[in-house]
Amino acid sequence: MSELIWVVICVVLAGAGMVVGYFLRKKLAQAQANSIEAKAEQMLTEAKTRQQEYILQAKDKAGQILDEAKREERQLRTELHNIQQRLERREGMFDQKLLEFQDKQQKLQEKVERVQQIKQELEKMKDQEVENLQQLSSLTKEEAREELIRRIEEISKADLAMRIIKMEKEASETYEDKAREILSDAIQRCASSHAAEITSTTVALPNEEMKGRIIGKEGRNIKAIEKLTGCELVIDDTPDAIMVSGFSPIRRQIAKLALEKLMADGRIQPARIEEFVEKAKQDLAVDIKKAGEEALYKMGITGIDPKLVGIVGRLKYRTSYGQNILNHSMEVGYLSALIAAELNLDAAKAKKCGFFHDIGKSVDQETQGSHPEIGGMILKKFNMDEDVVQAALTHHLDRPFNIYSSIAKAADAISGARIGARKDSYEQFVARLEELEKTASSFPGIEKVYAIQAGREVRIFVKPNEIDDYSAFQLAKDIARKIEQELQYPGEIRVTIIRETRVVEYAK
Fold first, then answer.
1. Which residue, 217, 335, 454, 483, is the most exposed by fewest CB within 10 angstroms?
2. Domain 429-499 carries which CATH code?
């Protein structure tokens, strides 16, 4: 019974707790709902407040923009009004000027008509006077003019002739004296070396034994040197020296440099000879460029293309009648500058014209054409001044291009004609050897031609794939026959044909 009571009591308490909990929960939920609604209401109120503020700000900005637009519109209208007023004033001024111009034009036309009327009246009066004169003299207008001219000529002919002759004589004497004075002064102020005929170069040897090593076994070393350089090696009883003979200074210099390098190396054999000949050619190219640079520096000429400097350096190994062309060019440049200074002309330009006048001789042996034509082409290629180009082209003509070409021609004549400058025999000798080589090389299948032993022998290297042994014999006869027919020479000339096949392979 007691347990039942406790159960009932527990059930009642549980039900009471549930009821109490339900009401508490309901009240709590209602309180929370009231709190959220309050917050939402507050947020809505704040949003409406901000909305009103934004609307007010937008209205203020719109008002400002509208005021600004109205102010700009008023300003623009004012400017347009001012422009319209200026245009109206200008239009009025233009109308006034136009009226004035029309008025002046009308007055000018009236004056022109008046002048024409006066001119016609004068012509009539002139014609009447001419008719009156013709009636009085019984001569026409043309006859009267011719008679007047004839009488004036008869009266003045003798006086005019004597006056002209006197003036020409005085001018000629004055010009000749002045030219003689200028040229004499230029010659006195320029000193140069004398020409020397040189067709051989001496190479010093360390000892007599070196001669045998240069000759080589069965002469193979000396043959290789002569073939590669185109010069003849003269080995005689001269102690500790051998002579390199040839008409080309460049070939002799290559042979000398190659021999000096071979003696310094000590290994003298055909393979080394070929190697050192190539090195000698390279060293000579450097020396040629250096010679050109030194010459231009001494002349005070700058701004020259490096390739043209090398061409100038080649003149060091070119002669004309025994006179070194590089020294001759420098001498002509100095003389041209002195003459131009006396004539109050551009001395620097005249010096250039004189220095480059013989530039064509640096390659005239390798290029077809005369040295003035070749020189003109070279200078045009390097964009030299037209006066310099024309000086090279026309310095041998009777009528040079201009005063600078005339100065270069005069300086060239002074340099070549002075005592000791040139010797004809050397130039003739070189020309004969060159003509001999040219004649021999005119046949097909020929690779190289060298005139040696002062023109007493010509050595011809043929292409082995084009000329066989039998053709070589026939070629030698044909060349000898052509030399007999076309050239004049003392004694006899030996024609030597050399046919060589060289095969090179490398073991790797």
1. 217
2. 3.30.300.20
